[in-house]
Amino acid sequence: MQTGSDDTATRHGQVTAKRVAGQAMRILVIEDDREAATWLVKGLEESGHVADLATDGEEGLNLAREAVHDVMIVDRMLPKLDGLAIIRTIRAEGLTTPVLILSALSDVDERVKGLRAGGDDYLAKPYAFSELLARVEGMVRRGSDSALETKLKACDLEVDLLSRTVTRGGKPILLQPREFKLLEFLVRNAGHIVTRTMLLENVWDYHFDPQTNVIDVHVSRLRSKIDKGFDEPLLQTVRGAGYMIREH
Amino acid sequence: MNINSKIFRTSTFRLSAIYLIFFALSVASVLGYVFWNTAGLLERQTDETIRAEVQGLSDQYRLLGLRGVADVMTRRIESSSGGIYLLVNDKRERVVGNLDLLPQALGDEPGWIDFPLNVGKGPARQRHTGRAYHATLSGGFTLLVGRDVEELRIFGDTIRRAVSWALGLALVLGLGGGWLLSRNFLRRVDAITATSRTIMAGDLAQRMPVSGSDDELDRLAQSLNDMLGQIERLMAGMKEVSGNVAHDLKTPLTRLRARAESALRSESDADHKAALEKTLEESDQLLSTFNALLSIARAEAGNPREGLVAEDASEIVRDVVELYQPIVEDAGGELTAEIADTLPVRANRQLLAQALTNLLDNAMKYGTDGDGRQSVFTATAKAVEGKAVITVSDSGVGIAERDRTRVLDRFVRLDESRSKPGNGLGLSLVSSVMKLHGGTLTLGDAKPGLRATLELPLLAEER
User: Fold this and answer.
1) Which residue, A70, A75, A123, B183, has most beta carbons within 10 Å?
2) A189-203, B92-106, B126-140, B308-322: range with lowest mean pLDDT
3) Which chain B residues are Cβ-neighbours of A130 within 8 angstroms?
4) Which of A14-18, B304-308, B370-374 has the lowest mean pLDDT?
């Protein structure tokens, strides 16, 4: 599967539509704002996924219990049954479907509450659709990742998590600790878009957006270290969305 | 309701009344004890003497007969020991004794009697009180032995009067004192109540009266005043903010609307697309303004005891510096850091880091001198006198001294910076984050440039 390798020419919508052709997911959306939900479902379907919609908590819980979904997107505040209550219920029943919590409450405490209830990720409203998509797809991958993996690979790039060394085409590449963490996260998500916010959250553990776009410079430094001297660039910028490391 | 009826319902009055009851009880028991041991004792001794004499004379009568007892009584009367003696026969006629008649109130049964006694002769005649015990002897005789107890009575009366006066006075003084205390207290509480009603009615500038005596009411009033000051500041801030929010959000919203309107009129797809892209950009800007406002509100509403945990300020500064170093270098500047190994503080890592990124964002935005020369930014973190002191300095034009406080307010943007993107909330957030941390933000001169100094209390080293 080839993705847009050209930084400038690809529009995000097209990239995602092509990218996910091979791995369509069934996604349950529980969201009471009909208009927002409609846009969300439409966007997910355009990206090649199948989406089911529930507009209140009870309906959502019933659909979730069918256990046929790869991932759930749950609004925090819902009529009839609160989003966190749904998550707590299905977790108590042993359902492990990854859950992305959507919420207008962006407080760090609220985030912690959501994750404690059993959510896997938390996204504050309003969000960019590309951000949501990247996170939803990232969650499913994380779910299938083996925690015992000690070596990650993307094309000819190898990341050894034990010795904390990186080689490309057999040649060692020296990285700063933070650069290593950044690369590790990108490689874990190889073949998928990773947004700037995801990087800030996962590599730096910052849950706010600095006004200056500090991430780009870090990524371009990393890029110069891993792509310099190689014909095929691995680390790509996806305009309007984020970054991606090629898988193959 | 008038003040007097209210006084009885004040807690001070109730307290004084309870105190008074206990006080009166203790005074009464002390005085009672005194009475029992003085006048009471004398009376009891007299009674015992009389009883003993009656007993003695009855025995004499039994042993020696009428003659014998009359002799003894006559001897006793002649020895003028002050005793009153009378022996009458069954017709109540005197056989022997120094009393003319048997008191009229005398009953048949033996017992005690207090009776009027005439003492002296002629003009010196006085009425005294006698106290006597009478017993019936065989043969229909009645024996009466008594004492002139006038002095004893006067003494007892004096003591009784003194005791009642003392008790009454204590009660009156206690009640009066309680009333005065309560009235004084009530006046001051009423003043506070009245003031708080005025404040509730909307006059936030009012303050509770402070008498200057630094007593507990003063302290209460003082802390209420401090609280009011804080509320007033917050309200003023809120009013100002709502005004500013209205203005600062209306402007971009107006632009958005105008752009959408003109795009709708246009027939060209390119125009539509351009308008949509611009709209997206502008909404992102609006959202970031909202987020900044929310962050400030959250920091200001935050409970320091809940959200703060032990953190290493050095590590937080180091991380942020590391995050910014590349971008500063890419912009042709330099970011140097001087950071102590460890600075234990109570902090919210996210908020403190956000504050620092705001300072560095500002430094990068406004800290360049504009001549295209390289800008140098410095970040330091060290311990000074029990405080963690973090500074971020730039080598730009700085901020004039008169503007340094003003720029901490929300939405304040200096004219020089209006041309650059921003929402005028960066420093406000830093300031509220520092308040949440029990610290301060001060802006100073880095000669040249601006130096922002954050101070927050160091956590005492654990041993």
Assistant:
1) A75
2) B92-106
3) none
4) A14-18
Stronger pLDDT, A22 or B28, i.e. the higher one: B28
- Stated as kind and residue range, the H or E segment containing B136 is strand B126-136
Distance separating alpha carbons of residues B218 and B284, to the nearest angstrom: 52
Whole-angstrom Cα distance, residue B427 to residue B442? Answer: 10
CB contact under 8 A, A211 and B361: yes
DSSP class of residue B370 equals S
Mutation target to probe the A interface, by most A beta carbons within 10 A, among B284, B327, B360, B413 is B327
Model confidence pTM above 0.90 = no
- Taking CA A93 as the corner, what is the angle to CA A87 and CA A94, rounded to the nearest 5 degrees? 90
Whole-number Å distance between alpha carbons of B429 and B265:
41
CA quadruple A243, A107, B351, B305: dihedral sign = negative
pLDDT digit string, tens, across residues B210-246: 888 888 888 888 898 898 888 888 888 778 777 777 7
Q: The tokens of B279 are what? A: 């709209």
Residue B199 to residue B208: CA distance in whole angstroms: 10
Across chain A, the runs of DSSP E, i.e. the strands, are 26-30, 50-54, 71-75, 99-103, 121-124, 151-154, 157-160, 165-168, 171-173, 194-195, 235-238, 242-245
Instruction: Give the angle B377-B383-B384 at the CA atoms, nearest 5°.
Output: 100
Q: Please calculate the CA angle B65-B68-B74 and round it to the nearest 5 degrees.
A: 135
Peptide bond into B103 cis (omega under 30): no
Chain A closest CA to B305's CA: distance in Å? 14
The Cβ-side half-sphere exposure at B34, using a 13 Å CA radius, reads 16
Distance from CA of A94 to the nearest CA of B (A): 32
B289, closest residue in chain A (CA to CA): A211
Contacts of A213 in chain B (CB under 8 A): 327
B264 token code pair: 């709708």
Contacts of B195 (CB under 8 A, 6+ apart): B206, B207, B208, B209
Are B288 and A218 an interchain contact pair (Cβ–Cβ within 8 Å)?
A: no
Select from B307, B348, B361 the Cβ nearest to the Cβ of A212: B361
Between CA A129 and CA B284, with CA A209 as vertex, the angle to 5 degrees is 50
How many alpha carbons fall within 13 Å on the CB side of residue A97?
Answer: 28
3-state secondary structure of A239: coil
Residue to mutate among B291, B296, B323, B392, with most A CBs inside 10 A, is B323
| Residue B361 near residue B324 (C-beta atoms within 8 A) | no
Phi-psi region of A67 (alpha: psi -120 to 50; beta: other; left: phi over 0): left
Cα distance between residue B62 and residue B144, in whole Å? 16
Half-sphere exposure (Cβ direction) of B81: Cα atoms closer than 13 Å: 17
As a whole number of Å, the CA-based R_g of chain B is 50
Helix (H) or strand (E) holding A29: strand A26-30
Which is it for strands B94-97 and B111-119: parallel, antiparallel or unpaired?
unpaired
Per-residue pLDDT of chain A (248 residues; tens, 9 = 90+): 344 344 433 344 334 433 443 478 899 999 998 888 999 999 999 988 999 999 999 999 999 998 889 999 999 889 889 999 999 999 999 998 999 999 887 677 788 888 889 999 999 888 888 889 999 988 877 655 556 678 888 888 999 988 999 999 889 999 999 999 999 999 988 888 899 989 999 999 998 888 788 999 999 999 999 988 888 889 999 887 889 998 87
Q: Whose CA is closest to B23, among B170, B141, B147?
A: B170
Q: Report the gap between the CA of B326 and the closest CA in chain A (Å).
A: 6
CB contact under 8 A, A126 and B287: yes
